[in-house]
Fold each of these.
Amino acid sequence: MDSLIFYFLSSVLIFSALRVVTHKNPVYGALYLACALVALAGIFFLLEAHFIAGVQLVVYAGAVIVLFVMVLMLFDLKAEKQLWKISPFRWASVAFVAGLTLGVTLLEGLLGSSSIGDLGFFSAKHIARLLFTKYVLAFEVLGVLLILIAVGVVALTRLEREDD
Amino acid sequence: MGQDTMETLINGTKILVIFLSMGSLVPFLVWAERRTLALMQSRLGPNRTGPLGLLQILADLVKPLMKEDFAGQATHKGLFYLAPLLAIIPPALVFGAIPFSHPLILPSFEFLGYAFGPYTFYFQGFNLNVGVVFALGVSSLSAYALLIAGWSSGNKYSLLGALRAAAQTISYELALSLALVGLILVFNTLDFLEMVKIQSGPLTFSFFGSEKTIPFLPGWGIFYQPVGAFLLFISFLAESNRVPFDLPEAEGELVAGYHTEYGGIKLILFYIGEYAHIMVASALMVTFYFGGYTFYPFLTEDSLNGLFQARMGEWAGLLTSLALFITFLVKFFLFLFVFMWIRATLPRFRYDQLMDLGWKTLLPWAFGNAVVTAVVIFIFDFFKRGSFFG
């Protein structure tokens, strides 16, 4: 039963990840990305890593991609669609993803199959302890980096406005 | 899923029953809402069709079902039909994770020559050890339904309505999650069942190293986190797009918001989603702040089990669970009534007032609440243990 659900989720994941780069309409691409992330959260649930799955839903599928979708829906995307029709990037991107998948599969075959097994020990408490003791520096640096990005984006938009 | 066919079957049926009962409760809620509003506005409300106007529900449902299934020419067909479904899936999933009663523990028994059990049946669709994170995560997906509906309609009014609705949902989600942090810190768990278990005892405070117990009050979350409860309730109101936060369908400005192009059964699905949001909000408020399915000191698992054990013997477990289920339902319907009451009382916000309330009032208060709670817990823990970092 579990492996049945796993194969279903992973085929959804791979299909929608492929469609992210091959669909001509960016809005559909973003929606497929959301679909892929939800499928990934499902796989985390299957591995008993409930907390990671929940956080995956809250942060990526629920917040980041919603903003992507919202912004993309506001744009006039005719030029992008036109570009996509004649662009060689379309097939290049398919080839890239296919090559990546093949590479990972081959690597897996070369190194011998490794099993992630039970991720149940990644409870909220365990993750919190790791984040605030062992990886506290990396954690804080990442936080600063995120603030830096936000400030940088605001600064860039302000600069452009002054040029007008 | 289950250790044998019997358990799998029952667990599967359970999920189906919860989902279907959620769906079929909606018409009754619509009827109850119209009657309540009428009562509060000194009107009669629907009272012609059938006893107490109950058949009005049927009439209201049959009409959209008979309508033509129509999608405009400019719509993106696939997404247009997907959006109404997406609107009901997240609340349904959250509803399935909420415990409605104490888990039923069945000892092993023999039936038709086969040995069964022992089983533990949870009165919830599925039991997760991080129910709170799951509920937040899944309900944050509901913004997609609004966005997809608005965009795929191929209509500018729909798109504007969808952007409004999604911006509102996303803004209040932050306040919602932050308001919950204080409660999670107090109860020190992310599990719904454990939260209810803590709330089934008397009110206990840790005060500068000494434990104070107030025996006549239940240990409900609202006594620990009154500010958090208030903030969470407002956020839930805004998340479910109800009065006074029903700007997404402000008729005067946006025709009808993101579902302008929808009609018939597809529109009904959106309404079911909206009412499902209210149901989820009521059930979560009860579970977080009002003792879940228990009511100390009368209706708790221990007291009921003792009572039924003496009178009924082996049926005690089942009767306890049923009595606690009824307790939960009473609280649940009380909260649904509060939602209707608010609808009859308050006028609608203006859009800038809505955003100000979300970002400049609720968010700082929720953040302050979380920080103060953390500091207080830290200090009292220090007095209890005699050292930092126990």
Note: The radius of gyration of chain A is 20 Å.
Amino acid sequence: MSEAYQLRCRECGKLWGNTAKPFCEECFSPLEIAYDYEALKKVARKENLASRDFNMWRYLELLPLPENFATPNSVGGTPLVPARHLAKKWGLQNLYVKNDAVCYPSLSFKDRVVATALAAARRFEFKTVGCSSTGNLANAVAAQSAQQGFDACVFIPADLEPAKILNTAVYGARIVRINGNYDHVNRLCAQIADRFQWGLVNVNLRPYYAEGSKTHGYEISEQLGWTLPDNIVVPMAGGSLITKIAKAFRELVLLGWVKEKPVKFFGAQATGCSPISDGVKRNLARFEPQKPQTIARSLAIGNPADGPYAMKEIRGSGGWAEDVSDPEIVEAIQLLGETEGIFGETAAGVTVGVAQKLVREGRIGANETTVVCVTGNGLKTTDAITSEYPATEAIAPRLEAFEAYLDAQLATSAAVARV
Amino acid sequence: MSVTIEIPTAFRKFTDGSPKYSCSATTVAEALNVLTNQFPGLGKHVRDDQGQIRQFLNVYLNEEDIRFLGGETCTLKDGDRVLLVPSIAGGCS
């Protein structure tokens, strides 16, 4: 092939070159990007990274980007936070939080996938781009479309969190609210991609889009000093991210950038929408779709397109999948905030809550290196935790009023302690 | 029962370009069998070697995924629409 990458069917292996195609036209299975790794070894060199900014474009040779691609903006390059307080609480030695709550420009890891999808959209000369979304993806599509001059049209379930709708609207995107859940929106978008010549990032541009997720994995490895963790806990909605982090780690080994070692992949879902974790825990050959009912709406995909591949990756790694209830999600958001100063969205609550469960189940060892992936910002899902923090009564701007307030607080604490 | 099966563009090379196929059937399974008997080239794309509906093909009865309706044995009534949609999109986190 003239380029170092092209579309390949994940089931029958047929190659399709580079085009906006949602699935294999031979066997109708999903497509992914396949690389010529021998060719990549010649152009992708670790030492080239030293002169590049710390964002996702530093790995540009490992992404499906057009030749002479001009990087349009800074995306990714998020912190890997040593989570010392949380580690102490859980009895672990080496715990990290990969914090995509501060991913630019729209504060979720979806900025990474949209960045590679829009590169493909430009290459395939789409004027209008869009997506089906539970919120974060719509935010990312809208923000980067504004930066790059695409018309954006996004499709969302009508009951999305107001903050997520606002965070799309502000960038001038057209928002189509659908009466139904995400799976209904998704089905409609599959039909729209079939009918209109639009670049729907997670439909007909999906193979290019999904590759952007790999940069989350590359960064983790680089930030760990070009090593791989023992365990990684990843939130799952459609199930794509966990498979792409695994692909990223495999590629780094193939390129000789890191030493090979086993990494256990752990998938995290909300109990109210847990088709993949349910499939893993019950050892099902195929997951059973569910009707989502959870506050973690960014993970509320009852019929996950990459579910089969996520299950395979988890099982093959010796990892596991778990899920947590809505109250556990809220507690975990608070735990992450209070221990590490990171305000994650409900999906982060899912991941941290599941990580805690995995530690308690003995699936994550005390001396192992563990990374927990936080993929979105808590400011987008404040409605999920607002009721935990009722407004307190205001006091007069006088010292004696504050003293009285303190006395009352101490009395309350003492009363609570006595109970 | 007279029902309509909606065919996605990618499948139309097996249905002589037709976007819809009307037939008489009492269950979704029967409708799919009638369809694949009429257009044999479609058969292996609808069912796998074990005779199960392919993993990456979603089948809907009107607005609902048939897996929520008890699977392909779910019964049809006059005027129902059966949609075939390849599983392609999805994924938000």
Note: The mean pLDDT of chain B is 89.
